[in-house]
Design goal:
- The two termini are 37 Å apart.
- The relative contact order is 0.09.
- The protein is 65% helix and 0% strand.
- The chain contains 30 helices and no strands.
């Protein structure tokens, strides 16, 4: 009997069964036979497929669609699971990476109007399914479906590479790559098809839609990892499973790793609910979403909920996975006090601001040296002069008694030191411009919580962002008269930066700046709800709040850079850039922890996020952050020394592209090293440089936030104890 025990799953929605189940079973059995999926009994035979029961899966996950649609959806899932098993038997077991890549590249040709002649059951199935599916949908949906289908197939190479070198991902890399290879975003696109809920093209990329899709995907994959651990890890030698990732990363046993994985699953389900209930309504207002568009989006949300509930019900019934040893609750639901008060639930709303905290800072791992720009002193002087001219030292309406910044504060921040290390070879003018951008972004990051935060003025912050967009025209156009220092700074920086950029580059850079300023509003919304973010949402939004995308966008758009756009989208370059961003952001979280938590009442700090998720103390939270940033640096090193050269050889990149890629790698190395050195020397973060602010009125009094959060904390105390493995306080 297996010693592996499944956890107590949070199941907030009841599963429902499509009445056309038997029709789908009969149809898809005949379809699989016609495609040749039973020709090789080492992969599948009819009995094995019937035991896995994909008809039941699709009847559970799409309970309302008609019989013809259910047949189509079931055929798609039979195809994707057969593909997974066929790839395992044909390429993973033999470690045939070259043959695997050629096989996957051919699949792209079957997502076209005129496909080639299929040579195996996977190609035959895709050639049949494609024309049955895409005519009913718009070109926008088709483009998205091509992308997620390609992710699902091509990213199988990621799993194969890890098996080849016996490597287990770090947690951040795992979640990102699992979304692609796991196929849940692909499932979400099929929900649009099956539910008649195609997302409006103009809204599909908005934060609420993106987070709903990604939190759905993560929950689907984490659940599957828990059910499939024994088969994948213990029987097949698979290394891409979150339970195994947690075992290796935390150095804990399987039971503890299962708990951490299940807590993350629960947190992602709460993130889905939180987004649907608190972010969609203002999104509908802000984007003037029509009633018809709202209807389609809400049908999509309902379809994702049905998929979650039905997917769990199928996992408990299919022969493919470990059997659950505990029944579900009433109507297949299971909602306990621990689910509601633990990670992602009430616990995330119980932080009491301005806590007296300290943490011993680790020495972050840094393998790269720092070089300084010879124009450093000139940039220091120029930045003080520019900041004064923009009004950064002027009094700010609504902030009592003092200006937000002073010249003394800015000199202590020494932002030019950061810019100098980031770009040691820049000209004096380029270095001054980069320093001014750092000053503007840092000032804005301080300005928004002070001006809009205490009053919970989300409407004012959104209006401010709309105005800031008007200072970033793509084509020459009149801009408004600046009303404050933030607007004045952007009005000066934009034309100085984009003057020589082509329109496409301007759009890319503007999008990066917009992501940063919009992320400030996301932070304000969390403060209004006193909500510490979910760990995955935090990591992904942190890249925006830190301005990482903005500064890296400038690097990608540097003059003379000859890296094709499609190369930037590869797993290797994307993974390298994300790893670098996360390293820098997490370094900032370690050094800013005391300032932000003790002196600013901040909620957006990785140490606090880990404290909240694990129910642990500051030192344990800091140890997790240090381990994460170290693992991201190790990943960066592996990508740049192994994966990236292999990619350039595989695509037969020319010398100019190789030089440009090498330059990009060096810039990211400089960026990380400079940011760490700056944090170690700046006077922005040490407690001796800080004083407690006047606490806003809404945190005081018998009905204030402190009282409310204390009451919520008493509820959260009933939740399960800390899940962080014992001994982590002193690690790394």
């Amino acid at each position: 009997m297996s010693s592996y025990t499944l956890p107590d799953f949070y199941l907030p929605h009841p599963p429902r069964l499509n009445p056309h189940l038997e029709t789908a079973r009969v149809h898809t059995r005949a379809w699989a036979a016609a495609m040749g999926m039973f020709d090789d009994p080492d992969i599948w035979d009819e009995q094995r497929m019937e035991a896995m029961d994909y008809g039941l899966m699709c009847a559970y996950t799409h309970p309302d669609c008609p019989a013809t649609e259910l047949n189509l959806i079931t055929d798609w899932y039979v195809w994707v699971f057969y593909f997974d098993d066929h790839f395992l038997e044909t390429f993973k077991r033999s470690r045939d990476a070259e043959g695997a890549q050629a096989y996957l590249d051919r699949l792209d040709a079957f997502m076209a109007d005129v496909p080639p002649e299929p040579a195996n059951p996977v190609e035959r199935g895709l050639a049949d399914l494609w024309p049955r599916t895409v005519p009913a949908m718009s070109p926008s949906w088709r483009d998205r479906f091509v992308r997620v289908t390609r992710d699902l197939t091509q990213e199988s190479m990621w799993e194969l590479f890890h098996i080849e070198r016996d490597a287990v991902s770090n947690p951040i890399e795992y979640i990102e790559e699992r979304r692609k290879v796991g196929g849940a975003p692909w499932s979400a696109a099929l929900v649009e098809h099956a539910a008649g809920a195609e997302l409006p093209a103009r809204l599909a990329g908005g934060r609420p839609i993106r987070v709903l899709t990604e939190s759905f995907a993560d929950a689907v994959h984490l659940r599957n990892d828990l059910f499939s651990y024994e088969r994948e890890v213990r029987q097949e030698g698979e290394l891409s499973n979150c339970v195994l990732v947690c075992e290796r990363f935390f150095g804990c046993d399987t039971r503890q790793a299962v708990k951490i994985t299940n807590d993350l699953l629960t947190s992602r389900l709460h993130q889905f609910e939180h987004t649907a209930l608190t972010e969609l309504p203002p999104f509908f207002t802000d984007e003037a979403v029509s009633p018809a568009e709202q209807y389609r989006i809400l049908r999509y949300v309902g379809g994702l909920q049905d998929w979650q509930a039905g997917g769990h019900a199928w996992h408990t019934a299919s022969s493919r996975y470990t059997k659950a040893d505990r029944p579900g609750g009433a109507l297949g639901m299971n909602v306990s006090r621990a689910h509601l008060t633990g990670p992602g639930g009430l616990r995330n709303h119980t932080h009491i601001p301005y806590a007296e905290v300290t943490v011993r800072l680790p020495q972050p791992y840094m393998p790269f040296p720092v070089r300084d720009n010879p124009a450093l002193d000139a940039a220091r002087a120029a930045d003080v002069e520019w900041s004064a001219a923009m009004g950064f030292f002027d009094p700010v309406p609504g902030i009592p008694a003092t200006a937000l910044w002073t010249e003394q504060k800015l000199v202590g921040f020494d932002l030019a030191l950061c810019a100098s290390g980031i770009d040691p070879d820049a000209s004096a003018g380029e270095l001054i411009l980069a320093t001014n951008w750092l000053a503007w972004g840092t000032y804005g990051d301080d300005y928004y919580p002070q001006v809009f935060g205490a009053a919970h003025d989300l409407a004012g912050a959104k209006l401010a962002n709309r105005r800031l967009r008007r200072f970033m025209p793509i084509d020459p156009a009149p801009t408004p008269v600046p009303l404050n220092a933030v607007e004045r700074g952007l009005a000066d920086l934009w034309p100085r930066t984009v003057g020589s950029m082509p329109p496409e580059a301007r759009r890319a850079f503007r999008a990066a700046v917009e992501d940063m300023i919009d992320s400030w509003v996301w932070e304000l919304a969390n403060h209004a709800q006193n909500r510490v973010p979910d760990p995955i949402d935090y990591i992904e939004m942190r890249r925006r709040t830190f301005g990482s995308d903005m500064t890296m966008s400038l690097a990608r758009l540097a003059p003379g850079r000859r890296i094709p756009a499609e190369l930037y989208r590869t797993r290797e370059l994307t993974g390298m850039a994300n790893a670098a961003q996360d390293y820098a952001c997490l370094v900032n979280d370690l050094f800013s922890y005391e300032k932000e938590i003790r002196f600013e009442g901040e909620l957006h700090n990785g140490v606090l996020v880990m404290q909240t998720f694990f129910g642990c103390g500051p030192q344990e939270g800091a140890a997790v952050i240090d381990a994460l940033l170290t693992s991201r640096m190790r990943q960066f090193e592996h990508i740049t020394t192994v994966d990236l050269p292999a990619l350039l050889d595989r695509i037969e990149a020319c010398d100019a592209v190789r030089r440009s890629v090498a330059g990009y790698v060096t810039e990211l190395q400089d960026w990380m090293a400079a940011i760490l050195r700056w944090h170690q020397r700046t006077r922005r973060y040490p407690a001796c440089e800080l004083t407690h602010p006047t606490v806003a009125r809404w945190t005081q009094g018998p009905t204030g936030l402190g009282t409310v959060t204390a009451r919520l904390a008493s509820l959260a105390s009933f939740a399960a104890p800390s899940t962080v493995p014992a001994g982590w306080a002193g690690t790394r």
